[in-house]
Design a protein that fits this description.
The chain is of the alpha+beta class and 251 residues long. The chain has 4 helices and 18 strands. α1 runs antiparallel to α2, α1 runs antiparallel to α4 and α3 runs antiparallel to α4.
């Protein structure tokens, strides 16, 4: 038996939206302790690492460990029909192996969708030693990334003892964004050495835009020419992290 319920529909909708930036289908690991997901996007460039312990939910029932594979795009279509003041319940119909989505608000809506064959691949955490870490507001990060995306499709991120610098150069325009000590959006920095790496903005813009709805604080970790790790602080010990491979072809 598996059943979860949240009284704030936006909580669930925003999290599934964040996952949908990388995945069309996702295999969740369900246990008595909560829900986990670790998967790479089809291009193998980015990875999501997600965990929601049972205490996040208003109701959580799980009688056995299982894998639940769902079409994220289709699930999101249904969740978008719910409003903040409405509750959402997801339950697995054991006889039909279909997921039932119940939305309760001004009226009752019940949908169901098929589950898919679970993907058994185990995705390890990238073995990266990060030499620079900065903590910033998620809204500040979102605005900075959207600023540089106006001029280019890639960004050069540098973290030193004092600030984060983002540089982008396009065919016609360039942009330099600095988040430094004393800025409202800048919350702290730790560095072993100055670190610089280039990343695709098509991934960063979508990841940060979606994750901003779930979190007010973001942690960015990089090392020179290595993947970036973005961690978006969640409530009740939840976890939402993304890894993105660097663009090594940019001068």
């Amino acid at each position: 038996m598996f059943r979860i319920r949240v009284t704030d529909a936006m909580l669930l909708r925003d999290m599934i939206t964040a996952i949908s930036t990388l995945l069309d289908e996702a295999t969740f690991d369900i246990s008595t302790g909560g829900i986990k997901l670790r998967a790479m996007d089809p291009s193998r460039v980015a990875m999501v690492d997600f965990e929601w312990p049972k205490k996040i939910f208003d109701e959580y029932v799980c009688s056995e460990t299982m894998k639940l594979c769902l079409n994220i795009s289709e699930l999101l279509k249904l969740l978008k029909r719910a409003r903040r003041e409405e509750s959402v319940e997801l339950s697995l119909e054991e006889k039909t192996n279909r997921l039932q989505i119940t939305i309760k608000g001004k009226y009752l809506r019940t949908f169901n969708m098929p589950t898919l064959e679970p993907i058994e691949e185990e995705v390890p955490i990238p073995k990266v030693t990060f030499n620079a870490k900065a903590e910033i507001t998620t809204e500040g990060l979102r605005q900075a990334i959207e600023d540089v995306s106006l001029v280019s499709d890639h960004v050069r991120i540098e973290i030193d003892d004092e600030k984060i610098t983002m540089r982008a150069t396009g065919d016609l325009m360039g942009a330099t964004i600095e988040l430094k000590k004393g800025d409202v959006a800048f919350l702290g920095v730790e560095t072993k050495e100055v670190s610089i790496a280039n990343f695709s903005l098509s991934y960063l813009v979508e990841i940060i835009k979606a994750a901003a709805a779930t979190s007010e604080i973001a942690t960015m970790e990089i090392s020179t020419d290595m993947p970036i790790r973005l961690d978006f602080k969640q409530q009740q010990e939840g976890k939402l992290s993304f890894y993105l491979a660097p663009r090594i072809d940019v001068e």
